[in-house]
């Protein structure tokens, strides 16, 4: 087996029903119930006009500036999949542009994440197919390899295994491990409901912020009234 230049099968992926249940949950709520310990990095931002990212990860690891294996991923990924590309964070050459975007839309994918650059940004920004990337350049990619498909990757310390749940909105990206999806969803749903109640109290003028002074006293702050 040629480590660094190989295509592996994906053993499992999060079910469409589970993906659908996360679509209305803010990524921030999901992050909170995961102890705020996981994130895809502040550089990876939405490049599209609108819409959340949610779907099972189809992972690609490629040499910076090279998209040969990304092209192969377009042929192998399934509808609803989110192609997640670790291109080393390099912004010298774009990994995708308008033509590859059209292919992904045609195939019904859930979106793409690129730890690298895109081009044809105006075309990407004008539509709702979820695209997250670290930057933009007009310089096109090479197509020489090497690269790997369906291997574990890491984005700014956030490990993504093939088939894990990948989420993204205006606040950024988050991966929910395959085995934790149900437990995280239950906790995030409770968190969202609690925040909705808190917002209602704020709007009604009944919000209780007594915890602030209680925390300051516990931590030994001087000068409290």
Question: If you had to describe this structure to a student in words, what would you say it looks like?
Answer:
The chain is of the alpha/beta class and 225 residues long. It has one domain: Glucose Oxidase, domain 1 (3-Layer(bba) Sandwich), CATH 3.50.30. Strands 1, 2, 3, 4, 5, 6, 7, 8, 11 and 12 form a ten-stranded mixed beta sheet that branches. Helix 2 packs across helix 6. The longest helix is centred in the last third of the chain and has 24 residues. The mean pLDDT is 96. Its cofactor is Mg(2+); a divalent metal cation. InterPro entries: RraA/RraA-like (IPR005493), RraA/RraA-like_sf (IPR036704).
What tags apply to this protein structure?
Glucose Oxidase, domain 1; 25% strand; 225 residues; alpha/beta; single chain; 7 helices
Topology (elements, then pairings):
Layout: E1 5-7, H1 16-22, H2 27-33, E2 45-46, E3 53-62, H3 68-76, E4 82-86, E5 94-96, H4 98-107, E6 111-118, H5 121-125, E7 131-136, E8 147-149, E9 153-155, E10 158-160, E11 165-169, E12 172-176, H6 181-204, H7 210-218
Parallel strand pairs: 1-8, 3-4, 4-6, 5-6, 6-7
Antiparallel strand pairs: 2-7, 3-8, 3-11, 9-10, 11-12
Helix pairs in contact: 2-6
Binding site for substrate: 97-100, 119
Binding site for Mg(2+): 120
Protein name: Putative 4-hydroxy-4-methyl-2-oxoglutarate aldolase
């Amino acid at each position: 087996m040629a480590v660094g230049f190989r295509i592996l099968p994906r053993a499992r992926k999060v079910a469409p029903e589970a993906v659908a249940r996360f679509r209305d949950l803010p990524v921030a709520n999901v992050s909170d119930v995961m102890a705020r310990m996981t994130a895809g990095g502040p550089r990876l931002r939405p490049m599209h006009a609108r819409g959340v990212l949610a779907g099972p990860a189809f992972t690609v690891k490629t040499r910076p500036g090279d998209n040969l294996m990304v092209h192969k991923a377009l042929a192998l990924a399934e509808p609803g999949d989110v192609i997640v590309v670790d291109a080393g964070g390099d912004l010298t050459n774009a990994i995708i542009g308008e033509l590859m975007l059209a292919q992904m839309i045609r195939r019904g994918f859930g979106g793409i994440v690129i730890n690298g650059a895109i081009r044809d940004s105006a075309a990407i920004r004008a539509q709702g197919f979820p695209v997250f990337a670290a930057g933009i350049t007009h310089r096109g990619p090479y197509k020489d390899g090497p690269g790997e498909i369906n291997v574990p990757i890491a984005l700014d310390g956030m490990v993504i295994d093939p088939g894990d749940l990948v989420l993204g909105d205006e606040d950024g990206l988050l991966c929910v491990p395959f085995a934790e999806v149900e437990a995280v969803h239950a906790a995030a749903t409770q968190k969202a409901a609690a925040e909705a109640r808190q917002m209602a109290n704020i709007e009604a003028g009944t919000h209780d912020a007594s915890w602030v002074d209680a925390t300051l006293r516990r931590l030994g702050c001087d000068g409290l009234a």
